[in-house]
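Quick sanity check, Sulfatase:
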Amino acid sequence: MKNLKNTSIIKVTFLLVFQLGLNSVSAQTQPDPKYKGVIGKTLAESKEYWPEPVKAPKGAPNIIWILLDDVGFGASSVFGGLVNTPTFDDLANNGLRFTNFHTTGVCAPTRAALLTGRNHHTAHMGLFPHKFMRAGFPGYDAKIPSSKGTAAEVLRENGYSTYAIGKWHLTPDEETTDLGPFDRWPLGKGFDHFFGFLGGATDQYKPDLVEDNKAVKPDGRHLNTQLADKAISYLQYQQKTAPAKPFFLYLTPGATHSPHQVDKEWIDKYKGKFDKGWDWYRETVFANQKKLGIIPQDAKLPKRNERVKEWDKLSAEEKRINARFFEGYAGFFEQTDYEIGRIVDYLKKTNQFDNTIILLVIGDNGASKEGSYNGSVNNEFGGNTATNEAEQIAELSKNFDKIGTKDAYTNYPAGWAQAANTPFKFWKADAHAEGGTRNPLIVSYPNGIKSNTGIRNQYGHVIDLLPTTLELTGINKIPESIRGIKQDSLQGKSLASAIYNVNAPSVHQTQYYFLFGEGAIYQDGWKASFAYRPDFIDLFTDFNTKNKPVVNNAGKEVWELYNLDKDFNEINDLAKKNPEKLKELVQLFDQQAKENNVYPLINWSDVQDKFKTFLKQNRPQQPQPNDTSKN
C-alpha cells in the first residue's frame, strides 16, 4: 500500500513539473542564437521575426574588375605600346595609371591572389589546378580554402549582385565536368552567375563554354563578343529587376592568351605596321613611355634577351612571318579593347558609369614566351610539327595567311614577347623579374576620382585590389565568417591613399614572389631575386640549341640585388656591392616563404617531365592548319 501511494505521488509531481515547463518556456529550443522572435506552443503565444535583408550602403558604387591575359607592360597604347586601345586610353585619361603594380607572374596564381586578397601560396595556388602542376602540400594543392573568402563572397554578403565573365582557371582538373563537385566553380565561390571557360586557354571560336554550372554550346561568334553580350545582358536584367542594387562584375577575357585568333578585318588594320621588327618596336615604345611619364626620363633600355635573334639578321621570309605574328596579335588585342568598350558604353548610356569603380589590370603576368623562338600555328607552346628550324620556318611560311585567324592556333615568338614587355627584362612565368610580374593598372571612378587623375608610382600587388575596393565602397572590412566559416585576415593593403593623393607613401612594403624555381623578395624599394635554369622556353624546341645560354644549371640559386627606386627595370645588379642588404633580404624571403606555404620550393625541373606526359596524353588536339579536312 505504501509503495502504491509513493508511486502516485511521483506521477502527480512529474505531471505538475511537466505542465509548469510547458507554461514557462517556449514550445521548442531556439533554432538559432541570432533569432529574435518568440516560439510559443501556439501562434497566439509566438512572435514572428524577419531579419532585415542584406543591403549595400545607399548609393554604393558598382564594381568592375577587368583582368586581361598574357599582356606585356608595353603592348597597349595606354602605356606607350603600338596596339591601339582607345577604351583603355579613355579610362586612364580620365582616371589613374598605376605604373608600379604587380602580379604573381602567371595566370592561376594571380587569379587566386586577386580574388582572395591573400598571397597565392596562402590561397593554395602556388602553381596551377592541373594534375601535372599540383603537389600534396598546402601551398600547391590548388584547393582554395573556404577560410579565404573571395571578393564575390565578401561583396555578396554586403548586398551586391556578383557576376563572373570569362576565364576562371581555379578549378582542379578532376572537378571540371558537369558532375561537379561545384565548390570550386565560380558559383561555389560567391558568384551569382558565370559565363566563360574553366581552363587556362580556349579556342576563341570554339571555346569550352560554361554557363553557371553546366557546359553550353558556343554560337560560333568570337568569344570576346559573346562575353561582352552576356555581361551586358546580366546588367540589363539587374537594372530591370533590382535597379537600386549594386553589382560586382569580374570580367576576365581569354585575351590575349594564345591562341591569338580574330576576324581578318582586325588583322588587316595592322598590315605592314610591324615590318621594322621587334628591336625597332622596343626602342619606339621606350621613347613613348618616357613621353607619357610612366618611366623615368633617365631610364635605359635593357639589352635584347640572349634567346631572341637580332631582327636585322633574320632572312626576308623570317621577317615577313614574324611581322604577321604581331599583326595577328595586335588585331586580337584591339578587338578585345573594343568589346570591353561596348560594356563601358552601356554603363554610360544607362547613367551608371560615373558611380562605377573600374579596376583594370592589363595582364595577369608579362607577355608570353610560350610561342618559343619562332612562334606557332598549331600549338600553344611553339615547336609546331617540325624537327628542325628550317622545317619550322617552312611550315610557318606555308600557313602564313592563317596566322592570327580562326584557322590556326597562333602564338607569337619570344622576340615579340620581349617587345611587348618593354621596358623590362624577361617575360611570363619569370617571377624573379619585373618583366614577368609588373603589369599596368588603370583605376576609373568618376564619382570618386575628380581632380586626382594622372600617374601613380606607389607599389601595389594584386592582393591589394580587394582591400582597395572595400575602402572605396565604404565596406572597409571582410565579414568575420562567410557561410559559417571563420575568415582569415586579408594580406593585401588598400591603395586608396594613393588614389586620392599622388604623394602618399606606398603602404604595401613587403612582397615575395615564387614560381617554377624563380623567386624574389621586395621590401621598401629593394628587391633580391634568383632564378634556376634551363628556362621554360626551351621545353618544346629542343632542336634550337644555339639560343640557349646555360645559366645556373647546377640547381643552386644565385641571388641578385636591385634598388628599384633608382633602377626600376633591373639593369644594375648590386649583390656584390651591398652583401649586407642582400643577406637581409634573403632572410626575409625565407621568413615570408615559411609564413605563406611556399616551401618546398618546386622547380621547373621537378615538373617538366609530368608536364610533357600530360600534354601528350590529355591535352585536346588542335587541328593542324595545313590539314584542310580538320579546319
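Posting the structure with no commentary besides this: The domain at 63-630 is CATH 3.40.720.10 (Alkaline Phosphatase, subunit A).
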